[in-house]
Every structure is written in C-alpha cells, then in structure tokens.
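Handover notes (outgoing to incoming on-call)

Open items:
1. S-adenosyl-L-methionine-dependent methyltransferase: sequence verified, structure written out, both below. Nothing else pending on this one.
2. Nothing else urgent.
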Amino acid sequence: MSRRPINPSRRVADSGAASLDASIRSKTRSPPYLTIGLVIVGAFLLIGYFYRDTGTFASIKGAISGVEGDFLCTVEVQKAIPFLKKAYGDSMHKVLHVGPDTCSVVSKLLEEDDTEAWGIEPYDIEDAGRFCKKLVHKGIVRVADIKFPLPYHAKSFSLVIVSDALDYLSPKYLNRTLPELARVSSDGLVIFTGYPRHHKAKFAEKSRFGGLAKLRSSTWWVRYFVQTSLEENEVAIKKFEQVASKKSYVPSCQIFHLRSYP
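S-adenosyl-L-methionine-dependent methyltransferase structure tokens:
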C-alpha cells in the first residue's frame, strides 16, 4: 500500500503553531523573582498600614516631610538626640520640643531612658495619626500659637528644643517667643534653624504653614541673641561638638545652644 505523501507546508505550519503556543504559555507564566518582589512590596505596605501611628512610622513620615522642606530641622533633632544626651547629661531628663511634627520627636525622646518629654505643635494636627492625637489627648503634646505666652510655668522643663518654628517668625514675634522659650527652661535652650544656602525654589513658595521661611545666617542669629540678652552656652557647645566630631556627625541645620535666664 502506498503511503499518502505529507504536505511539507502543513508540517511547517503545525510546527509554527506549536512554537507559538509554547511561547504564549511561557510569557503568561510570571518569573519567580517577580512574584517574590511583589510579595515583599505587599509585606512592607502591610507593615506601614499597621504601624502608621507608632513612633517608628512617625519618624519615617518625618523624614519624608523633611525632604519636602517643612520638617527639615525637626528630622535633624531626632538624629541629634544621642549627641544632645552626651552634651547635656542630666539636663535631658525633662524636655520640651517646640516645632511642627513634634509628635515624632516626643516619641523618639520617650524611647530614651530617664527622659520625660512634652511637645508644642505650633500649627494644626488635622493630618496627624492616632498616635499623635493620643499624645494631644493626654496633654503631652499641645497645639499652641508660639507668638503668645506659652502655657507653662517658669522653668517647667530642664531643656527646651526648638526646630522649624522660628524660621517663620518676624523679629517682632521673635521678641516675644524667644524670651518665653528661655523662661520655661532651667538648664538651656537648643535652637535648630535652616541654613541660608538651603534656600532653594521650594522655600520660595509658601509652606504649608502659610508663610515664607526666613533663613538667617549664624551671624544674624548670634547678634539677635545678644540683643535679647540670651547668652550662648559655651560648655554645651564644646561638649556637643566633641561628641559629634567623634561620630563624624555633620548636621544639616544650624544648631545654637543658649543659656536659660537666671
């Protein structure tokens, strides 16, 4: 019996169809590393969701805000806490922080041994998380306009730390605010302000606080401190610079150490 000849074109077509089908199946199959990557990303998102109101997540939030410019020095305060503890020692036992996103700084300070911390938020907390609102509810953090007298007795705190708040005040209001900050402290006042050289386009626009940051030079600040009878704390400056130098710490903000009023 003679065999029926096979059509060569059909063989090629069948082979091509099989190859195409295999190719489609291989493309629709997700690579293993892509699946692993998606799982990792999902895990981070879940962690962020569940811990969005904790001190750790608040620190991350603060870092992101710092990139935007509004909280630059508030983030710097959190970095500087270990060096401030070395420089001030027992004077870090009762601390008041004044500035935006103060909840993140307060939560960081409360992690330190033998440290009590309070905060003043000069603006609003509408976007704050549950953790921050709990601090406000407990009276640990207060929302107050720092252009007016602070709601504390004289020398209520051993140390007062200020960040990202004075840059938005004119000399008229600084004349009121700085003496108030010194009044409620007993062992010192630490001020974090922006450098004039960081005056980029983002600072030229209005911040979320409704004003322009007035980034002043260190010479301007020192002269202003003298005019308001505030003396620099040479002992604290020396100790802070020594411990910062050992760790190669270079702050991205200006830091001034002042004495409290007698």
